[in-house]
Amino acid sequence: MAVLVLVVAGLLLSGCRGVRTEVRKTEFMMDTAVTITAYGPRAEQAVAAAFAEMRRVAALMNADDPDSEVSLINRNAGLEPVRVSSETFELLELCQHYSELAAGAFDVTVRPLVELWGIGKKDKYVPSPEEIERALQLVDYRKVILDQNTKTVFLPVPGMGVDLGGAAKGYAADRAREILKEHGVRSALIDAGGNIWTVGIRPDGRKWRIGIRHPRPEVAGGVLAVLPSQDLTLVTSGDYERYFLKYGTRYHHIFDPHTGLPARELVSATIIGNNSAEADILSTAVFVLGADRGLALTNQLPHITTVVVTPKLQVLTAGSHETELELVYKEGEDQ
Ligand code: ADP
Ligand code: MG
User: Fold this and answer.
1) Residue 98: CB within 6 Å of ligand 1?
2) Distance 111 CA to ligand 1 centre (A)
3) Residue 174: exposed, middle, or buried by beta-carbon count in 10 A (0-12, 13-18, 19+)?
């Protein structure tokens, strides 16, 4: 009897040690630092496999990589349909779905604008109205031909291009989460530069606490709000990650496809949901749409919670997790 008790105690101990084993790794990919923290006996292999999966997705979908499927689609604009993997095809379909809902505020064909402005690549370059107009002629998600049967993508006009920059990080985070779960990880945090996934709860039995950064820390301190989180994804689009200033104007990397200019309605848009690709697309879409039209869009989606910050630093929230949000910064507090 005594032996049995000891064995059981031993099992419990090793079990505990397994659960508390923390593995935290950071890699730079998709233009950002990705950090995965995972717990459990197989956390080491799980994290390595999750990173390998994210690198695989990045290689498929990075428009800057000439070997990606996206580049293949773009090179064949005006020439011929390109057969792609089902995951690239399905992500493009998801983008198209939300482009419709967002009346084109999200548009996967923004590539000509991304190249023209070259934010973060060219040096403080503001294109002329003519250049912007020329690029805009090539931007229209409705022209993309997605053929379900052949899994082909066709851009009918030469010069058109797709850019999954507003969705692929979320999709990669979704894949990383799946891989962690397949490895038996029940507690983890994926942070892909503004795209967060919380897997389960923390090993100490509490929920994860995710901070939403304030877009203007110089005015309001670092944290806008904290969300206790269990199996939720949280994605922010902001004007403060990739931008340059010229004559006091902030030029950043999220474009309004109707004007060809960096969107000005909001300074940040955060989406909380249960699918990171969807949340990624919606954060970009809401950022472009602005507070009224953005919240009108996400209010149609009951599983989504939205936090937006206006240029006057008003904070607006809506959705199912709204009441759990702990606002750190209150409007007008520091102004
Ligand atoms: P981040 O990449 O900083 O997380 P987003 O998820 O909002 O930010 O994605 C911005 C990227 O999406 C840009 O770098 C560009 O590649 C692409 N993009 C920019 N504007 C749009 C738009 N209106 N619709 C779809 N994609 C866009
Ligand atoms: Mg996005």
Assistant:
1) no
2) 10
3) buried
Whether 166 is in the pocket of ligand 1, judged by its Cβ within 6 Å, is yes
Check whether 330 has a pLDDT greater than 80. Answer: no
Considering all CA atoms of the chain, what is the largest pairwise distance in Å, rounded to the nearest integer?
86
pLDDT one-digit tens code per residue, 207-234: 999 999 999 988 878 999 999 999 999 9
Q: Which of 14, 13, 15, 10 is nearest to 2 (CA)?
A: 10
As a residue count, the chain comes to: 335
> Under a CB-based contact definition with an 8 Å cutoff, are residues 46 and 181 in contact?
no
- Residue 9: in which H helix or E strand, if any? helix 2-20
Query: Would strands 22-29 and 208-213 be described as parallel, antiparallel, or unpaired?
Result: unpaired
Q: Are 163 and 108 in contact (CB under 8 A)?
A: yes
Which residues neighbour ligand 2 (ion) by CB within 5 Å? 166, 280, 283-284
284 touches ligand 1 (CB under 6 Å): yes
pLDDT range class, residue 125, cuts 50, 70, 90: confident
For helices 168-182 and 276-289, the axis angle rounded to 10 degrees is 160
Question: What is the reported pTM?
Answer: 0.93
236 Cα to the center of ligand 2, angstroms: 7
Give the H/E segment covering residue 295.
helix 291-298
Closest ligand to the CA of 289: 1
Determine which helix (DSSP H) or strand (DSSP E) holds 164, and give its type and residue range: none
Give tens-digit pLDDT for 296-313: 999 999 999 999 999 999
Is 293 a residue whose pLDDT tops 70?
yes
